[in-house]
Amino acid sequence: MAPRIYVLLPSGRWVWVKGKMVRVVSTGSRRASVAHSMVGETLDEQPRPQGRPVSVFYISSTKVSRYIIRLLDEDVDGIMVITPVTKSIYCVELYGFTRRDVARVKEIAESMKALRAIKKKLVVSPSSQQ
Q: What is d(CA 117, CA 15) in angstroms, rounded to the nearest whole number?
């Protein structure tokens, strides 16, 4: 089962990512490439998961889409809220994940070289902002 993933877009709209579409793009020759697109639904209000996040980490904004697409294939269960902190860094908050699933989600980010450190003065949990 894929996690429930909510993303705050830079425009201020919340999106619930429900899945992905895969399409094969052929170029006149024998080569073909695979393109992935996310399928989602816009939300009228901010998602409010129960409790406190079990883990919070930061990823590069250039890797957010690829990271989400990779997570949609994983067998992890929980709620993930992804919000922009700066133009180049996004915050990932995990709710209701087991320790094994948290380790797997972070391992995927590490394998993609998407994890980012953040300066202390920028560390404000996006879910605490109202």
A: 25
